[in-house]
Amino acid sequence: MSTPLRVLMAQLNMLVGDIPGNTSRVIETALKARDEHQADLVLFPELALSGYPPEDLLLRPSLELRIDQALERIKAEVSGITLVLGYPRYVEGALYNMAGVIRDGELICEYAKQCLPNFQVFDEQRYFVAGSQPGVFEHQGVRIGLSICEDIWHSGPTEQLAEAGVDLLLSLNASPYHMGKETQRAEVVAQRAQQVGVPVVYLNQAGGQDELIFDGNSLLISAQGETLFRGAHCEEALYTVSFDPATGQLTPEQTSAPALELEASVYQALVMGVRDYVNKNGFPGVVLGLSGGIDSALTVAVAVDALGPERVEAVMMPFRWTSSMSVEDAEAEARALGIQYDVVSIEPLYDSFMQQLQPLLSGYAPDTTEENLQARCRGVLLMAISNKKGYLVLTTGNKSEMAVGYSTLYGDMAGGFDVLKDIPKTLVYRLSRYRNSLSPVIPQRVIDRPPSAELAPDQTDQDSLPDYDVLDRILELYVERDYSAQAIIDEGFEPADVNRVLRLVDINEYKRRQAPVGPRVTQRGFGRDRRYPITSGWKAGI
């Protein structure tokens, strides 16, 4: 009788650039897989040793030496178990995105990624040379094929493995999250499993890296395309699976994680994104302005869930136009969350600025200059707290606002991380209701009241913007799906609304270039995902 092959899937959260630290984690996990899980083979994510994406760290002259030292250390310190892991590797002067198989001090197989993505957030062709040959090795009589991330989204590499006659496919991944990605992955991996006629162990990394979220959600897919197991969403985890060579069956040894509704999926992604950005960059805590509005209300809830209340500080900075309702609601949420909370009026700061500016601005009628000055007073206060305490300033602008420039440079945009940068306003409301379903921390009237920046008397966002249901749909079509103005109008939107919104998006590119990074959750976020010129004569139209 054949002996089942026990595989441990290491759904880990690596730190980009920390090759020694990542190597230690690989060694520690491999020994744990061998001694505590009795695994025969342990599988790690794509580019586990360097972290993903390493970007221009791949161009550093010492990369080759560092990776070679890491591999030698693994070979020297781990025996009695086979490791399959990803790393960048030079071969004859060319850099490859590699998967290596290490067993008892020997590198027995290497496979170079064949399909190098160069779209959306990916630019692997900037760094890597594509491989062309299949990666196949034997373990306990089982012929195992290797695939790296993008490879499995294309049929070519899988056809090679089918021709090579493999029994099992191992897929190493660093696949970033966006809404609906979990379902897309499962469908694609199922197609590949059916194509090659063998089960697939699909391992994805977890963790936040700047604006990218890696959500885990590792998969076990049968040869028939059935999802046998799904790993946890946005969490590190170790999973053991048994493969029976006689039957070709994969048997997970843990219970599959439950499928999540969209709001839960996005909210957990935001929490992990904040936690990893703060912790990996060494900040002791965060500070933000708590205005009594829904954006800051959701942001502070995410921050507390990510870091704990003891590492979150909120400051209410009222002005003459700030309503008593906003002051009351900000304090109520701060108390519900148990965070440090202070109130600092910006009236004296604003008056002082206006007094000094009066000789320079006399003769000019009041306009948005005075409104923006209020926001800039608040930015100065938050940045001073940040400087003194070492806290990261969280900004609170949502995707709808960032798209049309409804924000103030060096004011409410002053900070280091924008939690809601890729969250449309309509989704902000949905996430706020979801968070309250767990425990009510956001006052209900914050959710119910019309949104307002409160920079002028009786001001609401809809004074200068279309209704958010309309605005967000137009923005989705233009920003995420590249519809033209006419194509959006043909969807039933008012031409005046469409032309105005598209113009605002285009002319505010200069603001977005100066905005903090924030976690990406849509298929096209602002930043590395959407690169438009600031200086441009392009006119929106057909």
Describe the structure in your own words.
This protein has a 7-stranded mixed β-sheet with strand order 5-4-3-2-1-14-15, covered by helices on one side. It has a 6-stranded mixed β-sheet with strand order 6-7-8-9-12-13, covered by helices on one side. The chain has 16 helices and 20 strands. The model has no long low-confidence stretch (mean pLDDT 94). Helices cover 37% and strands 20% of the residues. It has helices at residues 19-35, 63-77, 155-164, 181-196, 262-280, 294-307, 324-337, 347-361, 368-389, 399-404, 425-438, 444-448, 468-480, 485-489, 495-507, 509-513; strands at 5-11, 41-43, 82-91, 94-103, 106-112, 135-139, 142-148, 168-173, 200-204, 206-209, 212-215, 219-221, 227-230, 237-244, 249-252, 286-289, 312-316, 340-343, 392-395, 417-418. Helix 5 packs across helix 11 and helix 13 (468-480) packs across helix 15 (495-507). Strand 6 and strand 7 form a beta hairpin. It is elongated, with a radius of gyration of 26 Å. The chain has 542 residues and is of the alpha/beta class.
